[in-house]
Amino acid sequence: MNPDQSRPATVAESHISTVLLAGDRAYKLLKAVDLGFVDFTDTGERLRAVEQELLLNRRLAPDVYLGTADVTEQGAVVDRMLVMRRMNDSHRLESLLRDCTASGVAVPAHLRACIDAVVRSVAALHAASAPVYGDDAAMATRDAVAGNWADNFAVIEPHVGEVIDRDDFEEVRELATAYLHGSAELFAHRIDRGWIRDGHGDLRAEDIFCEPDGPRILDCLAFSEDLRIADVLADVCFLAMDLVNLGFPREADRMLRLYEEFTAETHPASLAQHYIAYRAHVRTKVCCLQYAQGDMERAAEARALHSLVLDRLRRGAPRLVVVGGGPGTGKSTLARSLSESEGLAYVGSDIVRKELAGLSPEHSARSPVDEGIYSPAMTEATYAELLSRAESLLGLGEPVVLDASFTSDSHRRSVRELARRRRVGLVELRCELDEQVALERVRSRRGGPSDADEVVTAHLHRAADPWPEATAVDTGSTVGEATERALLALRSAPQAQLERRTDSDGGDP
Q: What is the CATH number of domain 10-85?
């Protein structure tokens, strides 16, 4: 070694490696340890692992990973070191973001440009990696992801009460389990769409260096292909989680939008929240392990990360919102407003009914009560299709708002059964309006999917079963005011935290 004497030598250690920093070089030596998820006790395996780490990390930082150097004893190779260019600690993305937090300033343009370049580099890495399908993608199935969560819970649980709050631990377990229970189709869909790729696997802000000529992304998860090959969204969500944890949620949201723009990848917001939560859960587990080894400072970090897990799982929990009421009460207007403001997939009975009849939404099919496309049989078919579409959307991780009269208690019971089956939160809203005002609104309608007239309106008002389970929403004022009342009801209902648009999050410094 011929180190630059202007930079003092130092040693850094992790659970699997020792890194000697000397001058302008860094020398990484893998430890001869067996930690269960990795076994480096065999010399030959360590030698191969070092070569693999060199190869994989050169994908994103070829000028940092310079080569390898053998360690010999009496002419025999007994170990191998990874030789790297020593990076400047002050250029770490994590350090730069912490400086922003300490100064109370927003992320400056040059740092945002670095994050953008990181996203672009990771997107290119994913694009260059062939999609993984079938048995080769087993690590990305719902069951495999559930197994990873279970492993985390097993490590964290002994520290519940001392480090992690018991109620929070149980809520995290319930929310994660419920999401996975209802999302098998979503995870299968991600595999079918080709979004399982060989990525970085450990995309952390502390391993990203913002250099004048662009970022250097180091230390990919070289030792485990099973952990490195994953959903591309899970890969980028590691950095998104770091940004949230460092106090920059809007930068995390912006990063994910940019990734979509670069790759044309799309996903339900709930899946991003789930993967952010999962990555924070992994970090919580690591902090608990370090705490158990005597690092007392990791307890506070574990609690903060676990709070992040809980927050993101709550945000990402798919919900089913029912907006009911008679014609003219404004239920469709309110349902569409909630769809727009809260990112809920909209499914409306007026449109579904006409699609089943082979009609366009604007085509008038007005008929007497219980006749034509409004016969009891057609109504039953409409509600069945309404629930079928809702179930499909929920299975893909989408929160849903249903717009229909829901005058019959049997239809409401079917919705509740769907919510129980999918293990999603259900919020029932009943639009309330003076009957004469509703009749006047119906008389003044011009076009639209609804065919209800004054006779139908009066009939449905009289025929409606009592609906005590629903929260009444006064729709006699403006759309904005009615929407605010509905949002208040949604957010105050038990287990009714809905996915919200990212621009409603707390601001970054």
A: 3.30.200
Pairing of strands 229-231, 400-403: unpaired
Kindly state the tokens that stand for 426. 């259900």
pLDDT tens for each residue of the chain, 509 residues long: 455 556 789 999 888 899 999 999 999 999 999 988 789 999 999 999 999 999 999 999 999 999 999 999 999 999 999 999 999 999 999 999 999 999 999 999 999 999 999 999 999 999 999 999 999 999 999 999 999 999 999 999 999 999 999 999 999 999 999 999 989 999 999 999 999 999 999 999 999 999 999 999 999 999 988 889 999 999 999 999 999 999 999 999 999 999 999 999 999 999 999 999 999 999 999 999 999 989 999 999 999 999 999 999 999 998 999 999 988 888 999 999 999 998 899 999 989 998 998 887 565 656 666 566 678 898 999 999 999 999 999 999 999 999 999 999 999 999 999 999 999 999 999 999 877 777 777 766 655 555 455 666 667 677 789 999 999 999 888 999 999 999 988 887 655 433 333 333 445 55
The single-letter code of the amino acid at 440 is: E
CA-wise closest residue to 424 among 405, 401, 406, 403 = 401
Q: Considering only the top CATH level, what class is 89-316?
A: alpha beta
Q: Which residues lie below 8 Å from residue 446, measured CB to CB, with a gap of 6+? A: none
Element (H, E) at 377: helix 376-395
Tokens of 431: 């639009």
What is the torsional sign of CA 365, 371, 372, 378? Answer: positive
**CATH 3.40.50.300 correct for 319-499:** yes
Cα–Cα distance between 49 and 67 in angstroms, integer? 13
Instruction: Provide the residue count of the chain.
Output: 509
Q: Is-same-fold flag (10-85; 89-316)?
A: no
φ, ψ at 424 (rounded to 5°): -120, 155
Q: DSSP character for 90?
A: G
Residue 462 is which amino acid? R
Residue-range domain boundaries for the chain: 10-85, 89-316, 319-499
Would you call 38 exposed, middle or buried from its count of C-beta atoms within 10 A (0-12, 13-18, 19+)?
middle
Cα–Cα distance, 264 to 269 (Å, whole number): 15
